[in-house]
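Hi support team,

I'm filing this because I wasn't sure whether my run with magnesium ion finished correctly. The job status page said complete, but I'd like someone to confirm that the output block is well-formed before I use it downstream. Pasting the exact inputs I used:
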Amino acid sequence: MIERTGIGASPGVAIGPAYLHVSQMPDITRRRVEDHTAEVERLLRAVASVGTRLSDLAATHGEGSDEAEVIGAHLLLLEDPEFTGEIRDRIESESVCAEAAVSEVTEESAGMLESLDDEYLAARGADVRDVGTQILRSVLGLPLETWDALEVPSVLVSQDFFPSETATIPPGMALGLCTEEGSATSHIAVFARGMGLPAVVGVDLPATEPGTLIALDGETGQVYVDPTESVIRTLRDRQEEQRRARASAADRSRQPALTRDGTRIEVAANIGSDTDASRAVEAGAEGVGLFRTEFLFLDRTRPISEEEQYEAYRTVLGAFGDHLVVVRTLDVGGDKQVPGIEIGEELNPFLGLRGIRLTLARPQMMRDQLRALLRAGTEGRLAIMAPMVSGIADLMAFRSALAEAEQSLAADGLPFAADYQVGIMIEIPSAALVASRLAPHVDFFSIGTNDLTQYTLAVDRTNREVADRADHLDPAVLRLIGETTSAAEAGPWVGVCGEMAGDPVATPILIGLGVKELSVAIPSVPTIKERVRSLSLEECRDLAARCLQAADGAEVRGILEGA
Ligand code: PEP
Ligand code: MG
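And here is everything the job wrote out:
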């Protein structure tokens, strides 16, 4: 038996024969061509054949399924002037062969998106790489992965998988996934979590024969090649335990989450697009705790119009009926750059023109978004939230912008929400520390633990070198959360929408500190609801009080494990 440890990317145990998948990217040579027309025709034939293949594939998946969405996005890329248009331009302007133009433009576009170190953008980068590779193979007359050789349910092992490959895995044939590349937020991890497939990524596997027995634990990140009988037995027991836990969580996902002693905790979803809304409802989300609207601004050369935003917000509000939908105003800057919104060179972008600082500096953009939101607010229960508020001046400026947007809508005779909530993200330590002075002016605080951890511990959230220091269980972060909930005792409700809300280890502390709402990634909704049901408020309070006194995150973990 050989044992390796990678990154546990999607929970669950998988045991089965290895199916070795070979990465598709072929090597190419950059050739000069004289006949541009013939070369462009080669490209167009390849694009058309990939288009036909994708359309055929789309027809085999149900409308609205994740697979159909991936394929739909890929079909759009085939017509994207900034992608296939750019490939064509490259052939014509640089007299280069089609395969080199495809390969270069794919690499540049995907590399740009992936370098932004953001889960959604990285997934888009993977889409570009995927479609680019399909076109490239078609230009070169090479076949695409058909999974024909996958004859028995297996653990799929590869350097990496493209989204089109994962979307075409025959149902029931993947027991789990294991890749050399990838991180906890890479496409394959997001895909596996979405599909409920156990996965370990970033693992350095030894050369393995096809069919060799592989076992993996997507929680601990352990992978066993040719496991012993006793390892198999232990993993099978774990598998059964997890299956039972998942089944009971799913059964009760539509029911509210009450602690053992009867305190209700709202479990909402974090979404990034209007199309996420129905999936979130399905998973049992009691509303949206964070709609990251910056994702609506991607993939375009100019900011999205008021009208287009209005349609997207209406869809989400309509999907959630009586449940609250918290929409965050545009949060770009830092690691999130959006085409068409120029910020300029900054030495410390995370400390620069980011979130509300940027939108206050671009009043027209802020006005368009607030008008769209207020208009859509007639369709459901709307809450508007500002990101990166550092103190009272930002909050008051935000409230004035809202008042102005209301006045302009009234002047235009357009209907808008009569009643909506206003809140802010608490993600900068200064805001947590003066929360008592901010509380009278808001309906809620939503704690962004990703940034709160980054700014409290001075750990760049995009820098792998210091990633192990970014611990949301550090008592300094916990104290700021406690500061916020105490300041809000008599007034606003407090939620958490950073990744910490989806970390079951942290749930008792957050509840004990007085958090009333947890907003998490869609697939985590049932699990976090179950976690809440296993706790008692009284015990959580006691635990939280002890954790606040700890010296560091390790001591906090010790307290939680001993509880
Ligand atoms: C956060 O900072 O915790 C948060 C939820 O916002 P984002 O991750 O989008 O910065
Ligand atoms: Mg943030």
